[in-house]
Amino acid sequence: MTDELIIRRAGDVGRITLNRPGALNALNQAMVDGMTAALLDWRDDAEVKAVVVDGAGEKGFCAGGDIRMLTESGKAGDGRAWRFWRDEYRLNTLIAEYPKPYIALIDGITMGGGVGVSVHGDFRVAGDRTVFAMPETGIGFHPDVGGAYFLPRLIGEIGTWMGLTGARLKAADCILTGVATHYVPSEQRQALIDALEGTALDHDGEAVEALLDRFAADPGASDLSLTRALIDSAFAGDDVDAMAGRLEAAGDAWSLRQLEVLRSKSPTACKLTLAALRRGANLSLREVMTQDLRVSIRCLDAGSDFYEGVRAVIVDKDNAPRWAPAPGDVSGWFAPLPDDAEMSFLEG
Fold it and tell me: Which of 66, 122, 144, 157 is the catalytic position?
């Protein structure tokens, strides 16, 4: 076990707190391993009726994964990146298939890896501090952790817009899109946790849902109600350049801002992301996770925009990446890996 993960039992609830507040609770290998072990232990424990996951501190639920390690591993070719992604995607799938209510309290920054350990659960509770996003194209990567599964299933083309631009959703937006199932004001979060820990729960989740409904409030209007038509019009189809052209032709302030953002992202990552989302719309979650591992590993190839994106955004922080668009289509990025490197899942 690791101090970066606090695991305990409280009443009928298994509790997991991501405990790296200085790193906005970003996931590392030990945290992935610890969460997986706890969920497997509780899966067949009749005394655990539900699982509640939150993040330490007030800023972040979980801001992503260990990007520096992934970059170093890719350059060294030592296999740590492959193991992390495989185990992370196994954890995401375990959460999606979990037989007991899984409640993620996403009151804070929830991005990348944090999305993976929340959005696939039964209940996602947003708060006043919620900022939900998949910003991977900004570092030359793709929205993994099942992004190609849940993003295409959001209303209209909102998922496409999010995946390509890294757009950030607040609590009201999360409720409108279904990313969050409930909104509970941040000041009520601890009271909600106390109620979950102090209530006799059932196995089918009805008592959990009743509690969440009791604490739920109205997050107010979402800005997406005003921009949905623009999003659906601009981000339809299978061509990123055509999307950019429609944004430019629209000419309104919102569209021109989206165009500016889109043009700042890695062109290869955008092309790759769009292809992944369109494929993912017709795949099962496990099939998407298999696709994610294939694409993630290809992002470690020499010359990939991933290294330049990490340099510009995370290492040097000059936010001035020098992208090197890959020629041709991206179909090869989706090809199977060698048999011993392909995705596998936890069973039984």
Answer: 144
Q: How many other CB atoms sit within 10 Å of the CB of residue 276?
A: 28
In this structure, are residues 231 and 246 in contact, taking their beta carbons and an 8 Å threshold? Answer: no
User: Is residue 188 assigned to a domain?
Assistant: yes
List beta partners, residue 55.
18
* Catalytic pick among 136, 157, 173, 292: 136
Residue 311 lies in a domain: yes
**pLDDT tens per residue across span 126-141:** 999 999 999 999 999 9
Q: Is 136 noted as a catalytic residue in this protein?
A: yes
Contact present, 107 and 126 (Cβ < 8 Å): yes
Catalytic residue among 113, 114, 138, 280: 113
The token duo for 347 is 């069973």
What length is written for the chain? 348
In a domain, residue 346? The reply is no
Nearest to 142 by CA among 342, 330, 340, 336: 330
The pLDDT tens digits for 137-194 are 999 999 999 999 999 999 999 999 999 999 999 999 999 999 999 999 999 999 999 9
Tell me how far apart the alpha carbons of residues 182 and 168 are, in angstroms, rounded to a whole number.
18
Which domain covers residue 215, as residue numbers?
5-341
Distances (CA, A) of 32 to 89, 247, 263: 10, 39, 34
Q: 339 catalytic, yes or no?
A: no
For strand 5-10 and strand 60-62, is the pairing parallel, antiparallel, or unpaired? Answer: unpaired
Catalytic-residue membership of 144:
yes
Which residue out of 11, 60, 64, 65 is catalytically annotated? Answer: 65
Helical segments of 251-284, H only: 253-264, 267-280
Q: Using the predicted structure, report yes or no on whether residue 1 has a pLDDT greater than 60.
A: no
Among 335, 328, 200, which Cα is nearest to 267's? 328
Report the candidate in 1, 115, 102 with the shortest Cα–Cα distance to residue 42.
Answer: 102
Maximal CA-CA distance, the chain: 59
Catalytic annotation present for 65: yes
Q: Which tokens go with 181?
A: 């199932």
- The answer to whether residue 242 sits within a structural domain is yes
- The number of folded domains in the chain is 1
